[in-house]
Design brief:
Layout: H1 2-11, H2 14-17, H3 24-27, H4 34-52, H5 56-69, H6 76-90, H7 95-116, H8 124-139, H9 145-159, H10 165-181, H11 186-209, H12 213-231, H13 238-251, H14 256-268, H15 275-287, H16 291-303, H17 307-320, H18 324-340, H19 344-357, H20 362-374, H21 376-379, H22 384-404, H23 409-420, H24 426-431, E1 440-443, E2 449-452
Antiparallel strand pairs: 1-2
Length: about 450
């Protein structure tokens, strides 16, 4: 009803305005002048209600007139313009025409930058970030990494630490794509990553200072994705990370959040043998002992072959760890260290604790089986047949490992095949008083388990 009244009112003035008509796109004004200003306002008034209701089919004709003739009139032209063009893309079947529409969508974003790029809240960097995101969304594998990089680098350079987080994310993604196409750009990608990480770090601190919990959560999510991307990029080899982070860790040795993030990045990059990982863990542990930092110190002790200290820190780690799978790995590591010191019973105890935390973890079962096989002769030094009967117990563990964990299946199958070839023969079983096929027999010594003779 309001639209009809507006149109009737405008209709009364059109005769007097016609002589002064000029489009906003031509004279640089918001609505244009004369009859064309009426045409602009009329079409805005027509397309907005349709677009708000999701009726893009009826909105598109009116929107196109406002978009072409008075592009500075209102941000609604671009807010709904993106949705209208996306609707057109979704309904277009011809690949060539669909690509033309993607280009049109990019143009909508460019026009918004031209006319509303100075908006305090949704300015150029916000617009370019969403433009880049939609470009990747619709172009898929046909993304032009150089074009994407050019768009996003411009705003990152211009806005620095105030750059919209999405634009920062798309900037590093573009740099990653460029490196994947040309490995010689690895150093550039690393520098771009560090620049982006610094921007997000500054934004996170600002959000925390402002007690803006929502912004903190948003920036943290972007920062985590950034680190994961870097860790999985192929550029993040341990030597590179050592060179990049060694000095940074020293500079920020009192910054617990930074140290935690660095430790997590190095863990995800499988660089837990690097000096920077040990150093960061030590500084973090001194400020606030955590499971992660304790593991770092444990692994440093392992590297120094100080196994007693390593087990001490692993024991601390499991008391603080809340993730069962991670706790299982820590127990397994203690099992390996105990095994290396010939403390078989202790090693088995740790393995059993690991299994209790993660029933689908095959490595502890494998280690128990290997210990059984390795100690067979020491359990029965004077009985070669019973020594080989110990392999029944070892094979049982290997079988269990491949049942619960497919990552162990190949190795387990190989060991099962190998040890089966050395089990007591039928003749030896018949002649041995302790063995009877199909019956249980208790393996003595430290093993102390019953097995079925077969």
């Amino acid at each position: 009803m309001k639209i009809k009244v507006l149109l009737l009112a405008l209709g009364c003035t059109m005769g007097t305005l016609g002589a002064y008509a000029q489009k906003g796109v031509d004279n640089g004004t918001q609505f244009g002048s004369g009859e064309d200003s009426v045409r602009c306002i009329t079409n805005i008034s027509l397309f907005v209600p349709y677009a708000k209701a999701g009726n893009f089919k009826d909105a598109q004709e009116f929107w196109k007139i406002a978009y072409d003739e008075c592009p500075a009139a209102t941000k609604d032209i671009y807010l709904y313009g993106v949705r209208i063009v996306e609707w057109q893309i979704a309904n277009e079947k011809d690949p060539a025409k669909k690509k033309e529409l993607v280009n049109k969508l990019m143009e909508v974003y460019d026009k918004r930058v031209k006319y509303f790029g100075n908006d305090r809240r949704y300015g150029k960097d916000w617009i370019v970030g969403h433009k880049a995101s939609d470009y990747v969304k619709y172009m898929g594998k046909e993304v032009d990494a150089n074009q994407l990089y050019t768009w996003t680098k411009e705003v990152v350079d211009q806005f620095g630490n105030k750059t919209e987080a999405l634009a920062v994310s798309m900037f590093t993604y573009a740099s990653l794509l460029k490196m994947q196409a040309d490995p010689n750009l690895k150093d550039q990608y690393i520098q771009d990553y560090l620049k982006a990480a610094s921007i997000l770090e500054a934004q996170l601190k600002a959000a925390e200072a402002a007690n803006n919990a929502k912004e903190v959560k948003t920036v943290q999510a972007y920062a985590e994705n950034l680190e994961n991307g870097f860790a999985n990029s192929g550029a993040a080899d341990c030597e590179t990370l050592q060179n990049v982070y060694a000095s940074k860790v020293e500079e920020k040795k009192d910054d617990l959040d930074f140290l935690k993030q660095t430790i997590a990045l190095l863990r995800r990059s499988r660089c837990q043998e690097s000096e920077v990982y040990f150093t960061a863990s030590g500084y973090a542990y001194a400020i606030e002992p955590t499971a992660e930092s304790a593991v770092g110190l444990a692994k440093q002790a392992v590297k120094k072959e100080d196994y007693a200290t390593a087990i001490k820190f692993f024991e601390e780690a499991v008391t603080m760890e809340t993730d069962p799978a991670t706790k299982a790995e820590d127990y397994y590591m203690m099992g390996l260290l105990s095994y290396d010191q010939n403390s078989y019973s202790k090693a088995r105890e740790y393995c059993r604790k690991a299994i209790a935390e993660n029933a689908n973890y095959g490595a502890p079962w494998m280690l128990i089986g290997k210990m059984y096989a390795a100690t067979a002769k020491s359990v029965y030094p004077d009985d070669a047949v019973m020594a080989r009967a110990v392999y029944y117990a070892a094979i049982d563990k290997f079988e269990k490992a491949r049942q619960v964990d497919e990552t162990c299946a190949e190795e387990a199958a190989s060991l099962i095949s190998s040890y089966r070839a050395h089990l007591p023969s039928n003749e030896e079983i018949f002649m041995h008083p302790d063995l009877e096929k199909g019956k249980s027999v208790t393996i003595g010594g430290w093993i102390g388990e019953s097995v079925v003779v077969r």
